[in-house]
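Final report, Chapter 2: Outcomes

The project's central promise was a pipeline that accepts a single protein chain and returns its three-dimensional structure in a standardized token representation, suitable for archiving and comparison. That pipeline is now operational. To close this chapter, we reproduce one record exactly as it appears in the project archive, with the input sequence first and the structure output second.
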Amino acid sequence: MKNTEIRKPYRMEDFLRPQLFQKVAQMVHFHWRRNPEDNTLVNAPNWAFCFSAILNILFFACNGWDIIGHLCFGKPTNQDPPVLSITIYFSIRGLMLFIKRKDIVEFVKDLDRECPRDLASQLEMQMDKTYQNFWKRYRFIQIYSHVGGPLFCLMPVVLFLLTHEGKGSPVALHEQLLGGWLPFGVRKDPDFYFLVWFIDLVCTTCGVSFFVTFDNLFNVMQGHLIMHLGYLARKISDLDPRKSLTNEVQFFEELRLLVQRQQLLNGLCGRYNEIFKVAFLVSNFVGAGSLCFYLFVLSETTDVLIIAQYILPTLVLVGFTFEICLRGTQLEEASEGLELSLRCQEWYMGSRRYRKFYLLWMQYCQRTQKLGAFGLIEVNMVHFTEIMQLAYRLFTFLKSH
């Protein structure tokens, strides 16, 4: 594992690095650069979003045409429900990144402004732990995308080469990477198999890149917010109310800075939730549907290759859903840490003025910062249980029919 001991100050760019496959495929959606004039972090314009949007439009237009033809005209469909549901899951994340790109850039700029620059401040804020957590996460995503992704993409090719009956037979659905409709019947023509597979490969790379970018931004933002909240909680714990009796002016000046810091962090937490709340609401339930389809496919087949193709996405989907809910719980706990630090104070030893202020401050600290969506859901471990229950209910419904 890479040595994460701080030897020189970290920069925000160290947390926002793309994966290798994104660089090779030119699917880096945010190009972070330093403005030489004021050293602020900026996002350089790029065409990755536009190219990815065109691919998504074409992919879903083809799938939509296939579904409409099946429903309205009775034509045979070539849909792979598990693959279609997971592509919707990825595309929702990409759509949210595109819609909220300006908010994301501004939020990252604000985090960069609050990020300590010198080594001593970073050690005091325990930024080394934040980077260690980021690096572990980065390596996990690196393994998933560079090992699991190619295995998933190559499995249909292996099935095609081993099980296809001959040039006179159409390409079966399980031998295709994504499924759906393509013009002139090329998807089912064995002569065009590798051309179609390459098109599907590009679309898959686009979707995985959306997912990886979303995941990186979500986790980096959350990690920095928790770092700042933890540091503020320690500062509140170090506050000695007795000083309000001996040097009231200086004491309340320090207190004012702490409260302003808390207001700033609460504002950042609110903006953080605003960026991702639509994705939480839609993609988590789409994820439950995708998980249901994967379980159904795994329960209905005895083919080892098909099981190998779908078992990894199933486990990864459960893992990522669990972690997003865990991240929400961690943010709640970090926010609750401010109230806990305040409760542990010997507030009764302070001046009368501070004791009055303490009551107001305690009420303000009880406003725990949470991740949610329009008051309909709260992203925490309880929500993870609800998603798993929903997936199981959908699975039993499909099995019963």
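Archive annotation: The chain is about 70% helix and 5% strand.
This record, like all others produced under the grant, will remain available to the consortium after the project formally closes.
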